[in-house]
Design goal:
This protein is mainly beta. Helix content is about 10%, strand content about 40%. It folds into 2 domains: about 150 residues, Immunoglobulin-like; about 140 residues, Immunoglobulin-like (Sandwich). It is built from 3 helices and 20 strands. The strands form 5 sheets. It has a 5-stranded mixed beta sheet with strand order 2-8-7-4-5. The protein is globular.
Amino acid sequence: MRVYILSVILISLLLACGSFDDPALVYDMRVLGAIAEPPEILVPTNPDDIDSMALPEIQVCALVADPGDSRQLSYSMVACPKNRRGRCDAAAQPQVNLGSGTVGDPEEDDALVEICETLGPSPSLGEILERSVSIDSLSGFGAIDIQVGIAIWPAGSNVDEAIYATKKVRFGAALPAEREPNQNPNLENIEVTRLDGGQGFDLPVGRCGSITAPVVAPGEELQLLPIEPPDVREDYVVPTLDGEVRSFTEILNYRFYATEGSWGNSSSGGARDISGMLPPLDARWTAPSEAEEIGDGLDITVYVIQRDERGGQSWVQSCLRVVP
């Protein structure tokens, strides 16, 4: 009897797990990405030599989606030393308030909705760097990351309804002399292949309603392939504890999201395999096919997020229209 009961419980759990939503389908309020510009700042190797007032301004922008509701969104951004929770809500830690505000609906507003604030040079930023060095296991050797905690919530509601995201900003030691700071990656375009043999196209950049969306058929399967500029994967050097230098070439990863349809795979890229080959970069998406859902035509927002392993990031937002 005990075995039978355990079997029933196990089957129920498996069935429940199978009903989870695909995280690559965006139905509700989500932070899909965050960019820091610049993503890395090189500073003197001696923390005591860091002049916090001489540091450059850093702009932090969040890509937010909220397709399930028609509403404005409120937000706040706060910088602090990195922690496991990813939030800047500890009273004892140094903080910098980047700013807060309210923006229009990301999918409906007439103008492009940008959630951006600037982390400027200040003594408080210097305190964050000093604290980050003090809690780092290598005392800031090579690089340290600070974090910007991002909170988003429906305008007019309580902040308790907020969702949270974290953007890390890297401060690297200016060592060795030839070290260059990281740059955010970018894309030439995204090639779309119709797997039924139809004419392919380049994915246009822009929001639904602001661009002419390519038309796809119900149930049609598309292949999306990011096309990288020749020099987008930066070569970089880092110091080692034995006084040597190691050289690397950046790894790029991709995440794909859409407001409808289904993904055959929603992530791509990564490190080279044992033979030195890069993994595939493409993803496959299938348009919805239910007539009731499509109606006379259905606009679908597509997002492609590009990331490197040093905190660099960029994204492309586009639109596809499914027409019966």
